[in-house]
Each structure stands twice: as structure tokens, then as C-alpha cells.
Design goal:
alpha+beta; seven-stranded mixed beta sheet; four-stranded antiparallel beta sheet; 2 helices; 30% strand; transmembrane; Ig-like_dom_sf; Ig-like domain-containing protein; membrane; BTLA
């Protein structure tokens, strides 16, 4: 086996590796980037009438994306967009370059505001948030079923979300290089 055969065995895998590493779509964006909305599953918020209630969802954008919207499920299980009024307000707060938090705030909540709410962005949707409004509650803090907490993205979570794709890519590249070296060594013998 001559040097020409050696390069033909190693150049094809290296060319495939280069294509995989530098894959971009026509706009120069990562083609596998999708918006993501995070809301803790089974979230229940309790409030008394006349109080302020604020709910949120974390939103990860890939690039310039429109503002997420909030909707409320009606009796026929259709999610209708929540419109902002003097008593209902939406707000979008930036955490990092691609991570935002969308808030839906009721300044003076009423019993008619009770129901299931959801944060959505194009095809990405979060889990529903169950809002329970009663006449009087002793403790109006947010309650969560299954002892889960509603958390926003902290700096460590944001760092881990940023690092994991590179960890997986690096592991895949290492396996690929080992396979190429093994095939090259076996083909030399």
C-alpha cells in the first residue's frame, strides 16, 4: 500500500469532519438552532382577588426573534392570546445574548383571570401555568406541585447550556479521530 492509498483513506474522513464542523445554512446561522421556552411542569400560582400576580417563562432565542406571547385556554381548550391592558402587562427582560424572561403581570387580578396560561413563540411552547384566584388566601406566595420550584436561568445554568454542545462535539470528534487512526493503522498492515 503506497502513500497515495494512505491519503485516500484519511482525506475522506477529514473532509467529512470539516463539513460537519463548519455546517451553516444559507443565512450563516446554525441550522439546528430552535427557540426554546422553559416553564416548570405543573406550576400552580395562587392569588387573592385584587392582588398583583406575576408569572414568567424563560425564552432562548437563536437570533432576532419576535417577542413571545401569552395565551389563556378557554372552555374549548383553545389558547387565546392575552391582550395587554391597563391591568394586564407583558414585559421581556434580557438575561444573556440569547436568553430572555417573558413576564405576564396582573396588577389587580380577578376571579375571571383564573385558568391555564401558556407562553409561546412560533412553534415553541412552554408548559401551562395554572392560576388559581380566590377571595382570600393567607399566604399568597407561589405554590408548586410535586415540590418543584419555578426557576429562572441562573448564570451557572446559562454557562452549562453554552458548554454542553461543545462537550458533545468534542467527544464526537475524539471518537471520529480514534476511528480514523485505527482504520489508517489497520490499512497500513
Amino acid at each position: 500500500m503506497g502513500p497515495c492509498d494512505y491519503w485516500s483513506w484519511t482525506s475522506l474522513p477529514l473532509a467529512i469532519l470539516a463539513v460537519l464542523l463548519f455546517h451553516r445554512d444559507a443565512n450563516g446561522q446554525d441550522s439546528d438552532c430552535f427557540p426554546e421556552i422553559r416553564v416548570t411542569r405543573n406550576t400552580v400560582l395562587r392569588a387573592s382577588t385584587g392582588e398583583q400576580l406575576k408569572m414568567n417563562c424563560s425564552v432562548d432565542f437563536c437570533s432576532n426573534s419576535p417577542t413571545p406571547s401569552w395565551c389563556k385556554f378557554d372552555e374549548s381548550n383553545i389558547c387565546l392570546t392575552v391582550n395587554t391592558t391597563t391591568l394586564i402587562r407583558t414585559q421581556l427582560t434580557n438575561l444573556t445574548n440569547t436568553t430572555w424572561i417573558s413576564f405576564l403581570t396582573f396588577k389587580n387580578i380577578s376571579r375571571g383571570d383564573a385558568g391555564l396560561y401558556r407562553c409561546e413563540l412560533h412553534t415553541a411552547v412552554g408548559h401551562s401555568i395554572n392560576v388559581i384566584v380566590s377571595e382570600r388566601i393567607e399566604d399568597t406566595t407561589d405554590l408548586y406541585q410535586n415540590n418543584e420550584t419555578n426557576r429562572t436561568v441562573s448564570q451557572s445554568d446559562s454557562f452549562l447550556e453554552w458548554v454542553w454542545p461543545y462537550v458533545y462535539s468534542s467527544a464526537g470528534i475524539m471518537v471520529f479521530v480514534i476511528v480514523v487512526i485505527t482504520i489508517s493503522m489497520l490499512s497500513m498492515h
